[in-house]
Amino acid sequence: MSKDDQAMADEWAAAMDEDKQPSKDVAGTGAGKGESKAGSPDLDVILDIPVRISMEVGSTAITIRNLLQLNQGSVIELDRLAGEPLDVLVNGTLIAHGEVVVVNDKFGIRMTDVISPSERIKKLR
User: Fold this and answer.
1) Residue 96's domain spans which residues?
2) What's the whole-model pTM score?
3) Buried b (16+ CB within 10 A) or exposed e, 22-32
4) What is the CATH number of the domain that holds 55?
5) Any idea what DSSP says for residue 41?
6) Tell me, what's the pLDDT at 28?
7) Could you tell me if 74 and 57 are in contact, meaning their C-beta atoms sit under 8 angstroms apart?
């Protein structure tokens, strides 16, 4: 195990120990903060937290000079081919790929490939 992996493991262990500290009763359930009666994490605590979801068509890098020269009608070439799936990002983290659809005269996205939770965790490292 590398030093970085050990440091990350130590941080997780410290966070888990901190979470096990006694805390005030939540809503009279007899459980500590964020735990259900059985002692397992209570996901209801986080379900109403808002997150930013965005779709990325593509990207490119340009100089400030070229940026300042942009005007109505300018075309910027992106790094994606036409018809290639879009990236679906939640708080800037890739979670899926999808394609554009129209629903009631508004744009939407149909998920074509969702990244597994284990793959998402690997990308965090």
Assistant:
1) 50-124
2) 0.55
3) eeeebeeeebb
4) 2.30.330.10
5) B
6) 44
7) no
Task: Give the integer Cα–Cα distance in Å for 110 and 115.
Answer: 14
Euclidean distance between CA atoms 52 and 100, whole angstroms: 18
Q: What's the rounded Cα separation, in Å, for the pair 27 and 32?
A: 10
Domains held by the chain: number: 1
Q: Are 113 and 97 in contact (CB under 8 A)?
A: yes
Residue 19 is assigned to a structural domain of this protein: no
Looking at residue 40, the DSSP 8-state letter turns out to be S
Q: Is residue 108 part of a domain?
A: yes
95 touches 113 (CB < 8 A) = no
Q: How many residues does the chain have?
A: 125
pLDDT value of position 44: 82
Tens place of pLDDT for every residue, the chain, 125 residues?
Answer: 566 656 666 666 666 665 555 544 444 444 455 555 555 667 788 888 999 999 998 999 999 999 999 999 999 999 999 889 999 998 888 899 999 999 999 999 999 999 888 887 777 66
Within a domain: 18: no
120 found inside a domain = yes
